[in-house]
Amino acid sequence: MQAETLWLIVLGCGAATFVWRFLGVVVVKRIDANGAIFQWITCVSYAMVAGLIFRMVIMPESELAGVSLVIRITAVAIAFAAYFLFRRRLVAGVLAGGVSLSTMVLWFG
Amino acid sequence: MRKAMLDALSLPAFILLFTMMGFGSLARGAGFGADMAAIATLFIWGLPGQLAMVELTSTGQGIVAIVFACSLANARFLPMVVSFVPAMSRGRSNLLGRSLDAQLLSINSWAMCLREFPNIDTRFRHRYYVTFASCILMAAVIGTLFGYHGAVLLPAAVVLGLIFVSPLFFALVLSAVPGCAQRLSMVLGCATIPVANFLFPSVDLLITGLVGGSLGFAAGKLWKTVDAG
Question: Do B225 and A83 meet the contact criterion of CB atoms below 8 Å apart?
Fold first, then answer.
């Protein structure tokens, strides 16, 4: 594709994403932060983000798809165990999960 | 402000550096220039949309289809901004300032700030957010350029571990989210996504959010009523 077209795509995608952010800013001005609508939208955003993470781990489209599901789930379990073991330190959980996934891929993968 | 920089640099910045390296190398494969890839990270600032853009461009879709798909993949920013702004308590009040704040938002800063805000005085929350978000945005742009130029060649197993770190981080951060309705929404979101992805792959996240979030919200209300009664 030509450079102009690619630039148009990049800027168009930026603008198209910004539309949602801007709508969020407009909507938040009009609703009560303690009201039911706000609570509902909060729930929707949590469900979306959780779904996105679930998709990344369980049904990945990235190179992770080549790693068996058992390995991925085991690594998540190890990460959570380390996280709670080290008094909710994020670094501990993330390190344990990433390293255990790499190790399992080397051994079994 | 120092806390924000430390929090950002301790882990999220590195995660984004590596995640965006993946995006950078994909963008190169799809024919984008290095400057385009960096601008895409800066302006779109939402990985699912960026990936949609790169994938559809490499399969030669039309520009309207690409922009539309990217927009759909990033539609989560609407509810994310709505749930985030009040949590800042004393943010900027004018439209331009708020729009700039909204542009800086990403899942990383959203999840991390909602987690840290209860420990931060309301006066400093906005500053914390802007510092944190700017730090990780810079790391993301640097990561994009690194990945584009293939700066680091790592063994495949290590690369997989690094890719894995990103969803893992979000999962850990969100495990601390308070509130029964929010927790239920997340569980229901996980339950909905496989079905939604199978039936409507292009709008699966939107459907997941609406179905999981609405059910979670309703269940939370019900729970409260039962509890009170």
Answer: no
